[in-house]
Amino acid sequence: MVSSILSRAGYPVLRAANPSEALDIAEVRREPIDLFLCDVVLPELSGPALAERLCLLHPEARCLFMAGLPDQPEIARAVARGQAFIAKPFVANDLVQKVREVLTSPLVDCHV
């Protein structure tokens, strides 16, 4: 659903089914990646831990975290460091607006 919303809004999307696939994509991609959008709770690796590893491969990228349980400690740490966050559930317009906001904001270190 998220990739469809962003694609319809004109954003190119690289989809990954899990953290390992996201890391594989980021490793081989030579073009810049503008944004990592990931859930906080993922199989294998937390979203913040994944973002940290992805940002080592693509330091130009911004991060946007999403979660249905926004009171998780990982979210509090990420938000305290200036990372962007959107709470689920959200509507399509809110997601597109948040992505636009993050892409036009100053780069924040992905290390959480």
Chain-wise SSE layout:
Elements: H1 2-8, H2 19-28, E1 35-39, H3 47-57, E2 62-67, H4 73-80, E3 84-87, H5 92-104
Parallel strand pairs: 1-2, 2-3
Helix pairs in contact: 2-3
User: How large, in whole angstroms, is the Cα Rg?
Assistant: 13 Å
Helicity level: 40-55%
- Output the CATH class name: Alpha Beta
Side-by-side strand order of the widest sheet? 1-2-3
Q: Roughly how many Å apart are the termini?
A: 27 Å
CATH topology: Rossmann fold
Low-pLDDT regions: none
What would you give as the CATH superfamily?
A: Response regulator
Let me know the average pLDDT: 88
Structural class: alpha/beta
**CATH architecture grouping:** 3-Layer(aba) Sandwich
Concise synopsis of the structure shown:
The chain has about 110 residues and is α/β, with parallel strands linked by helices. It has helices at about 1-10, 20-30, 45-55, 75-80, 90-105; strands at about 35-40, 60-65, 85.
Please, could you describe this protein's structure?
The chain is of the alpha/beta class and 112 residues long. It has one domain (2-104): Response regulator (Rossmann fold, 3-Layer(aba) Sandwich), CATH 3.40.50.2300. Helices cover 44% and strands 13% of the residues. It has five helices and three strands, in the order H-H-E-H-E-H-E-H. It has a three-stranded parallel beta sheet with strand order 1-2-3, sandwiched between helices. The longest helix has 13 residues, at 92-104.
